[in-house]
Amino acid sequence: MKELTIGRNDAGQRLDRFLAKAVPLLPASLAQKYIRLKRIKCNNARAQRDTRLQEGDVLQLYINDEFFDKPSEANAYLTVTAPKLNIVYEDENILLVDKKPGVAVHPHDGAEYGRTLIDHIQAYLYAKGEWRPREEQAFTPALCNRIDRNTGGIVIAAKTAEALRILNQKIRDRELDKRYLAVVEGTPRPETGVLKGYLFKDAVKNRVFVTDTPQKGAKTCETRYRTLTKRGGLSLVECELITGRTHQIRAQFAHAGHPLLGDGKYGKLDPHADRRYQALYSYRLTFCFTTDAGVLAPLNGRSFQVADVEFVKTYFPDFRLPGIAE
């Protein structure tokens, strides 16, 4: 419990408005709940959110110490009172979340605190009592892979330090199989094959370029694909990254003459509808461990898939994604 004494400059304010300034990490909805539950009192008596504070009043705040920290990227999860997650799978070690397009996985320049995927994951685990930051020496639940803001799909979060260490190693050793769905313009020829090229990044323009011949600073890039169905001048393709380069699928298909639908950076905006995001989704994940996986060994051989993909239903309404046999 902490006590705050109201000084001359704070007198006359409503209780809820004072709390928003004095305890900025405490969300307004949670502050109201705590007032209702008498975990926030004024002069040891029940108060209301619109109580006018007087000089000399003493507030009793029965709330966790975390809320009294200064706002930062490390404690942005505290501003999330109702975590919004599409959970694909969860156990005591990991969490698989279906990230929707438009959601950033991490904050950028501190402008999105409380609205990113990692904020909601940490808030979810904090609310469940599975993560107690005041009791941890260093570990914080973390993401093992990233997906661009405007791309959707499965993101892996480690709930323990051991799981994080193992998953990072498995990803480096390519012992996870990730499959993507994309809608491209036209029909790739052949309908099943491998796109090969050389990719280099222009940091100033924040985009990549693909060439057919080696270039200074360029890295090889390969994407295996197969066409699943076609309709209305569009093709639904499944992609597997043989190499994992920035914007690889988007840039390689654009270079091949089949840009992704809605991709304004590497192709052109969707001519069929007002799409806000490129039609690209990391829809399936399979654990393919070839070496010891420790506590994650029970996941070996298992596949996980998102429930649905919006652009598949929109552009290929008669197509059904194959399910996963457990």
Could you explain the architecture of this structure?
By secondary structure, the protein is α+β, with helices and mostly antiparallel strands. It has 3 domains: 2-68, RNA-binding S4 domain (Structural Genomics Hypothetical 15.5 Kd Protein In mrcA-pckA Intergenic Region, Chain A, Roll), CATH 3.10.290; 73-172, Pseudouridine synthase, CATH 3.30.2350; 177-315, Pseudouridine synthase, CATH 3.30.2350. 17% of the residues lie in helices and 28% in strands. It has 6 helices and 15 strands. It has helices at residues 15-22, 28-36, 117-128, 161-172, 248-255, 310-315; strands at 2-5, 40-42, 45-46, 58-61, 87-90, 94-99, 142-143, 152-158, 176-185, 192-202, 207-211, 219-231, 234-241, 280-287, 303-305. Strands 5, 6, 7, 8, 9, 10, 11, 12, 13, 14 and 15 form an 11-stranded mixed β-sheet that branches. Strands 1-4-2-3 form a 4-stranded antiparallel β-sheet. Strand 10 (192-202) and strand 11 (207-211) form a beta hairpin. The N and C termini lie far apart (49 Å). The mean pLDDT is 90.
* Number of structurally distinct domains: 3
Q: Could you give a short account of the major beta sheet?
A: 11 strands, mixed
Shape summary: elongated
Low-confidence stretches: none
- The N- and C-terminal alpha carbons lie at a distance of 49 Å
Structural class: alpha+beta
Radius of gyration: 24 Å
Instruction: Tell me the name of the CATH class of the largest domain.
Output: Alpha Beta
The CATH architecture category of the largest domain equals 2-Layer Sandwich
Give a count of the beta strands, DSSP E runs of length 2 or more: 15
Beta strand %: 25-35%
Oligomer: single chain
Q: Helix count?
A: 6
Helix fraction bin: 10-25%
Order of H and E elements: EHHEEEEEHEEHEEEEEHEEH
CATH homologous superfamily annotation of the largest domain: Pseudouridine synthase
Q: Per CATH, what is the topology of the largest domain?
A: Pseudouridine synthase
